[in-house]
């Protein structure tokens, strides 16, 4: 099963850009499609699931202490129901990290949603979206789509859960905007994809949280993607996010930018991503803090063995911590930060396919990461070397990923903005770990 | 494996580069050195290096400072100082369990109690007996569901003869910030008498005097409540009288100035706390609000220090000198006597307020000569000014050496 599978649409006649944008969505939403009646349940319902069992040792994890912990992480079920093909499709991802990693997962340098140096659990309802798409032109590629529900805003790069590494890059909150109530329009024409979306600015405050109704549509983002050839993708995106860390509003706003180049070979056995992301904090119209990230990662497979390498340099806000020093108060009590540090992390991964069928895979892996950090504001209310008791952190993770029907998934794009059109579907090909 | 031809990849890289360059720009903030006033003498300092220092409370020859955040140790210590000499001498420390930050600290007006606010989480106030001022003895720790996740500030004042603590509670996801008032008549068993959600998005501090309560409500400005002084409200049932949103919001702290020479109670000073990074920079002005009519407060003046922002205040009300903690700007001493709403055109801002700096009212500045500082709080004691410095500990300073005009 392949969640990116798309039923081919017969071409519509060409229309002007504006009429397509306005009327295409309406037509796609309400016009029954002749192929709909022919859809079989087997084609209309797709399901996938995954979970990763992992043991991580960090040295030091905090205040000179080493920690070794085990998790069942990234447990998720994905479901797509598309009885009318692209005309109307429901997509949902249920994530059980709220139950399995409530304390957070050791991930040196990461910060967000009240967790620091531990990755926060994602929401139980990670995605729930209705998408309606309509293709036009003869290629079966061009089209418009409209998506509404809860999911990713059109910004930045793929979710790390759909990329090679088990450990997240620490730029997660700089390079993606997720788990929001979204309304997204997308247009694909030739080699270009344009997306624009509105969403609630407030970040989730826990796995069971729901988007704040009073904040619906107070934020927006747009993404332009250039696809010069089927395996190459370049995107630039921009977002204005209102008060992400204060659910009631009135907190610091963010202006976010992202640019990336993504390459992948046609057999899905090699992949590379170069990414730049930046978030500027604003109070009113005044910019306060900036956080920048550069990331490059690559992955390749040879027979049953695959390996990956990631280099990342990301600025992180250092905030006051709670008695549990892996947690920060949310929302913050004012507009200040304790400091800002720059993290340079090299992560290497080696994995093997023990079991690799079209629908089921078991992939043991090992990841090693080395993180160095320096304060970028001096003097600072947070001296990382003093706090961690070292000038670098080593992390070793060993585990295995079991997945079902999750081949070659990507997360963060919907409708016609999903880069691979119908013709690119390659049954039987999949990229474990992605 | 069929990889993309290298030349196609390289050809595409400039595209990504152009995007990146087009989006990337930065500017660094500069801090203007203090100027235009006389330096306050630095008499001595007492070092705290393992923790960041926070608020201070001085009574007689004893001073107490709290600690904040995460340095090589958690900010869970109360430092006890002998300040009889020029250099504060650390005498003892008290560790408060289950706290990562101790913000506010205050000695009751009779000198019998020491009250400390704790964050995170859950929030509380810790009440100590000062029967022996050098050995505070724990009397009680007040916490409730409404003090979670933290008590950011705790103002201890007497209203109609009874001692109360006014607690500003941090917001938490799903629970907005609120004010909780606790009766300390029996310090061993504090009891809540009032609670209400306040602030946008925070209620950050309060000021209590003459039976009036003034709340600093961040972007909602300040609000004046009668809690007995005007005969309409009580502590258990405050009645709002007036409010004003000061320019820029971010209303953080308040001082209602009672001029001891003229008897005038015309001005309220409001501290604005803008964004900052501990140790490096800060922002926010002092706003002067004319409360001649409590129901119709008007902002008439301000003081700004480019490159630094204000925090807590202490006022010499006999001489009319406002001492303001100014984080990386050290301590600023501002003449607040006379009419602050009248100034010549050169000192008037485009919105009609008077700029106290341009009026030449900064009379002194402290800690400009001791290296980097980040001053959280100040306290004027009649003979000296004490400053708690997050980076260094506790400083003892001289006062403004000449009377204001």
Question: Summed up, what is this model?
Answer:
The complex is a heterodimer of chains A (434) and B (405). Chain A is mainly beta.
Written account of the structure:
The complex is a heterodimer of chains A (434) and B (405). Chain A has 434 residues and is mainly β. Chain A has five helices and 19 strands. Chain A has helices at 17-30, 41-44, 97-100, 172-175, 384-388, and strands at 45-62, 65-81, 89-95, 105-112, 115-119, 125-135, 143-151, 180-189, 192-199, 219-226, 232-241, 253-264, 270-283, 286-302, 305-318, 339-352, 355-356, 360-375, 392-404. In chain A, the strands form two sheets. Chain A has a 16-stranded antiparallel β-barrel with strand order 1-2-3-6-7-8-9-10-11-12-13-14-15-16-18-19. Helix content of chain B is 4%, strand content 43%. The interface between A and B is large, with 69 and 61 residues.
Question: What's the SSE blueprint?
Answer:
The complex is a heterodimer of chains A (434) and B (405).
Chain A: H1 17-30, H2 41-44, E1 45-62, E2 65-81, E3 89-95, H3 97-100, E4 105-112, E5 115-119, E6 125-135, E7 143-151, H4 172-175, E8 180-189, E9 192-199, E10 219-226, E11 232-241, E12 253-264, E13 270-283, E14 286-302, E15 305-318, E16 339-352, E17 355-356, E18 360-375, H5 384-388, E19 392-404
Antiparallel strand pairs in A: 1-2, 1-19, 2-3, 3-6, 4-5, 6-7, 7-8, 8-9, 9-10, 10-11, 11-12, 12-13, 13-14, 14-15, 15-16, 16-18, 17-18, 18-19
Chain B: H1 6-23, E1 38-39, E2 42-47, E3 52-59, E4 62-68, E5 77-82, E6 89-95, E7 101-107, E8 113-119, E9 124-129, E10 137-142, E11 151-159, E12 162-169, E13 178-183, E14 191-197, E15 205-209, E16 212-216, E17 222-226, E18 239-244, E19 251-257, E20 267-272, E21 286-290, E22 298-303, E23 313-316, E24 321-325, E25 331-335, E26 354-355, E27 362-366, E28 375-380, E29 385-389, E30 393-397
Parallel strand pairs in B: 1-27, 22-26
Antiparallel strand pairs in B: 2-30, 3-4, 4-5, 5-6, 7-8, 8-9, 9-10, 11-12, 12-13, 13-14, 15-16, 16-17, 17-18, 19-20, 20-21, 21-22, 23-24, 24-25, 25-27, 28-29, 29-30
